[in-house]
Every structure is written in structure tokens, then in C-alpha cells.
Amino acid sequence: MSTAIDIRSVVKRYGTATALHGVSLSIADNEFFTLLGPSGCGKTTLLRCIAGFEDVTEGEIALFGQNIAGLDPNHRPVNTVFQQYALFPHMTVLDNVAFGLKMKGVPLSDRTARAGKMLEMVHLSAFADRLPAQLSGGQQQRVALARALAPEPKVLLLDEPLSALDLKLRQAMRVELKTLQEQTGITFIFVTHDQEEALTMSDRIAVMSQGRVQQIGTARDIYEAPVNRFVADFIGETNLIEVTVDRIEGETARVTLPGGHAITCPAAATTPGKHHLSIRPERLSLATTGDLTATVERVVYLGTDLQLLTRLPTGEEFHIRLQNSARTEIPAPGTTVALHLEEGAARLLAD
Amino acid sequence: MAGITPTPQGNGSGYRGIVGPLLIPTWAVIGIFLVLPVLLMAVYSFLTKEFRGGVVWDFTLAAYDQFFLNRGLFGDEPPVIEWTYITIFSRSIWQAAVATLICLIVGFPTAWFIATRPPQTRAIWLFLVTIPYWVNLLIRTVSLKFLIRENGPLNESLMSIGLITDPLPLVNTNLAVQLGLFYSYLPFMVLPIYAAVERYNFALSEAAADLYASRWVTLREIVLPVVKPGIIAGCILVFVPSLGAFLAPDLLGGAKTFMIGSLIDEQFRGSQGNWPFGAAAAMILMTLVLIVLTIYARAQARGEAK
């Protein structure tokens, strides 16, 4: 599979502030790639550098092998779906969708036909003659999508396109976006701060923080094998506890938990000494006996799950998630329970 | 639910008893100082002139007849169209249009510049634009005349740097009048355009560039149509007072630049005046302005309905 976008050591500075510290990543053709991170992590800046709205201070951005870092946005064969849609308020929906084609010099009859087809694809044919202000948020979102897809860009950039929609619509749009991406075969680069969005749609995710890429991988990679504390904490819910790595034998590390319980887990490029361990709450279960114990402080009923807020003997907070079934015995607050750690549930983190 | 929670309208109804009386001063001011004078002017335009100024209460169409038709020196020849006043009106419209265009060409970039400054400094720029307006219009117009006269600072400095050898005859020209009008009414162009550009969503320009539009095409296809209401408001605010202006044409222009404002002004001065004729000219001017505004309102309504 060929590479659609190759970002090589891109640095972006605004005066003395640095928004991107040498970001490098490659995105394959036909991939649904997500830039995920909290606000201010540089994900939108990176997207704007690819679109051409921002100049990179250093580094290269190659689109199918051609360096586009110096080109103006109107000379880059990529299109953007903006966060607030940025639909042209004085043009009809059809004219909005046809705008890119018009700029490319496509004759009127061809572009009208193509724009019509795009509207069909996003189920808005009936609204072709309306003005954007006469549409709902979800409809405007789909017009923005059709407008950006109409000129058949090589790469489609999406800047938090679902953040302005309500939950139900957002969930429906996730499926629709993924379907559209598969239908059109266009590479999607999707920016979001919503991990659920990232996990459900993406082929691969780059987790960003403070202007750096922290980890790139599939949803499963970054959820199950986070490389550092930031990724472990940002993606999903986790228990981060400080542990001592006693010794390392090849790929395996021998670790002592705060209560004295010893386990083995993948070494993940650590050295003996103090480190953080990430344990997902749903990878723990209640056991009848064992030397890993915790005191239950609160039980939160979540419907499908039960959340136990417990404390280890050494005082650390420890969350446990149990699937709610008829057989689940709910421990009373104040009782001490023994815990069973699933095989591979604990991940040692490099920092 | 409406029965329990007071709706906004419900809240407003509580004030209805007060709003009416509070509006009395406004209605009184509009009635006494706007409606009444216009009615008075309309009535006067149909009266007979008195020779020492003032009017005789005899109903006649003489003023309008004098404006549009020429019946010879003694009024007994077959009527032909009187071009004198129509020419003055056309010239005034032309002058006002050119002044409006100059204001637009200078005002749009100015407004754009101010609206794209950081929010903290915008107020300062707007303040700077309005500073000249703290000085009386008459004084400003006289100062402008002083600046551009033959041995004034403008000509002197141009000659001293050797750009010209003879002073430019600027005073008493169309150009001087247009300059005066431009100087008088520029803020009326800048402020509404500023308001429109300030509300402009710059993501639209990015979206246009993203969809392969050049800067020029973006300006023409996206920016101008979106800020158009501000531009039109600015043009009306400059064009209408320019059309009736008499200070700038009087002080900066000459006989060849005689405009409607001066014509009307003259009719009400001293014993040479002709009140019904001045009133008629003013009524015709007002009708013209109303026609322009109606066309604008229609165009605007059509644009919104589309």
C-alpha cells in the first residue's frame, strides 16, 4: 500500500511558543487515520499544516511523494471539513457543494451533476436549493462533507467535525463517515479529542500531547499496550500505580505491587527501579483468596457494569469494573476483597 | 408548561403598561421635528412665492413647473424641458456617486484593517477614525480649502520636492468637491463595513482557499457577498448626505460645481430667495432618495428570500 501523507520532523513555532516539536508520521493511502489528543496538543495545528493554512517552521509534508509544505492551500489537492462547517451562507446547498468543482474549472452541467450525486450520497438531494441557515446542524455537517468530497481530494481532512452535534447524531455520523471513507477510498485524516470517536472509526490512531506524537497504533494497540502514562491515562479509564521493578529477565519484568503482591509483565523497555503500572479496571475480578487485597469504599451502579471504588492497603485508589450479571455478588462498602489480575492485564509504562 | 414558567413574552407583557408612556417623548420628537417639517415643506412647495421671501397662501404648481419646464422669459411660450435644474441634479448625483465610490475604495481596506486587528486595539483604531469628527464640519471644510489652495501646504510641498513646477489648481474643481465630500463622510462608510467585517467568519475564506479559490476569487465570490449588507449601508450613509451637501460644494467648488444642496440653500437666503421653489427642489431630492432606498430594500428582501 502506498503512502498518502508523509510528515517528516515537522516543527511549528508561533514566536517563542512551539506548537509542534518535530512530528513525524506516515499515513497510508485509503487509511482512516485519527489524530487524538486533548485541546492544545497540536493536533489541529498539524491538520492546518497539512491543509496549508499554517506554514511549517521546519520539516516536510509529502503528499504521495511530492513535498507540499510550501504550497498555498488552493494548490493542495486536499480538502477540509471544518469544525463549524464554514458553509458559504449566501450560496445554496448545491452551489456550496459545487464550489470546489467550479474553482477547478469543471463545466456547469458536469459540476451540477456531480454535486447532485454527492448530495445523494449524504441523503440531502431534497435540500439542494436551500440556504445553509435553513438546515439543521446534522444536515449542515453532511453538506460540509459533500462539499469537501466533491472535488475528489486525495486526502480528506476532518477537524473535529462531529463536536457540534448532539450525542445521537454523533453516533450515527460515525458509522456514516466510516462507510463514506470505505465507499470513496479516500484517505481520511480525522482530528478529535473524543477517544470513543477515535476508537470506533480509525484504522490507526496517533495520540498527541504537548506538540508530540506519543504513540501511533491501532485502537487495540493504544488501548491495550499504551507506551506511557499519558496514553494509558488519556485512553479509557485506568489505574496508574507506582511499582518497583525488581529485575528484568529478557522481555519479562518482575514487579512488586504496593501491597507486596508480585507479578510478571512485559518489560516494555524499562530498567529496574520505580515505574508506573497501568491496570485497566475491567481486567480485574473478585477472587475468593489471594494476597492482592483492597477495601471497598463505594459501589457505583452503571447498568451494564458495576464500578467498585476501592483502596489498596497502602492507600492508593483502585478502580474495578465488574460486568453486571445475575450472579454478580455486590460487596458491601467497608469489606476487604481479594482481587484476581487477568493474564496480561498489567502494563509497565516507560515513563 | 407555559402556564407555570413565564415565557419571555409573558415577562415583557408586564412592562407593556410602562413602555407606552416611555415612548411618548420619542413620538413627540419624531412628530415635531421630522414629520411636521416635511409636511410643512410639502405644503410650501405648492404655495406662491412672495417677492421679499416667504409665501402667499395661494395653491399653485408653479414651483414644480419652474423646475421642470421652460416657458420662456414671460411665461407665454410653449413649454420645453428646463435643463438647468435637471443638470444640477444629475451633476449632484454624479458627484455624490463619485464621492461614495472614493469612500468605498478607501473605506473598505480601512474597515478591513481595523476589523482584523487584535480585539484590544480595534477600539483605538475606531477612535482614531472618529477624532476628526470632534471638529465642526465647517471648520474642517475651510481647513481642507486652506490645505489645497494654490499657495497652501499641499502645493508648496509638492513644488518644493520638485514633483510639480506650477501649483495645481485644486480649489473650485469637481475634484475638490469630491475630496471634501469624501473627507466629510468617510467614517459613515468605514463604520458599517467594519461592523460587517468584524462579524465575518474567516473560516469561510479558509474554506474557499481549501476549495482551490485564489485570494482574488475568494474576495469576489465569498467575502464581498457576505459583507455586502455593510457595504450597501455604508454607501447609502455616504451617498444620501453627499447628494444634499452644500458646505463642501459651496466652499471648495465654484460655479461649475453648483449642487442641489447649494441650490436649495440659496432659495431660503435673504430677499432673493424663492421658498416654494426651494421646497419643491427639496421634495424632488427626497423623492429621489426614497426611490434609491426602496430599490435597495427590494433587492435586500429578494436576496434574503432566495
TrEMBL record, chain A:
GO terms for molecular function: ABC-type polyamine transporter activity; ATP binding; ATP hydrolysis activity. The keyword Membrane applies. Part of the ABC transporter complex PotABCD involved in spermidine/putrescine import. Responsible for energy coupling to the transport system. Its EC number is 7.6.2.11. The gene is potA. InterPro entries: AAA+_ATPase, ABC_SmlMolc_Importer, ABC_transporter-like_ATP-bd, ABC_transporter-like_CS, Mo/tungstate-bd_C_term_dom, NA-bd_OB-fold, P-loop_NTPase, PotA-like. The complex is composed of two ATP-binding proteins (PotA), two transmembrane proteins (PotB and PotC) and a solute-binding protein (PotD). It comes from the Bacteria. One of its GO terms (biological process) is putrescine transport. Belongs to the ABC transporter superfamily. Spermidine/putrescine importer (TC 3.A.1.11.1) family. Residues 5-235 form the ABC transporter domain. It catalyses: ATP + H2O + polyamine-[polyamine-binding protein]Side 1 = ADP + phosphate + polyamineSide 2 + [polyamine-binding protein]Side 1. It is an enzyme of class 7 (translocase). Pfam families: ABC_tran (PF00005), TOBE_2 (PF08402). This is Spermidine/putrescine import ATP-binding protein PotA.
UniProtKB/TrEMBL annotation, chain B:
It is a multi-pass membrane protein. GO terms for biological process: transmembrane transport. Pfam families: BPD_transp_1. Its main location: membrane. The chain crosses the membrane at residues 22-47, 93-115, 124-148, 175-197, 230-248, 275-297. Coiled coil: none annotated. Keywords: Cell membrane, Membrane, Transmembrane, Transmembrane helix, Transport. One of its GO terms (cellular component) is plasma membrane. Residues 89-296 form the ABC transmembrane type-1 domain. It is found in: Cell membrane. Belongs to the binding-protein-dependent transport system permease family. CysTW subfamily. This is ABC transporter permease.
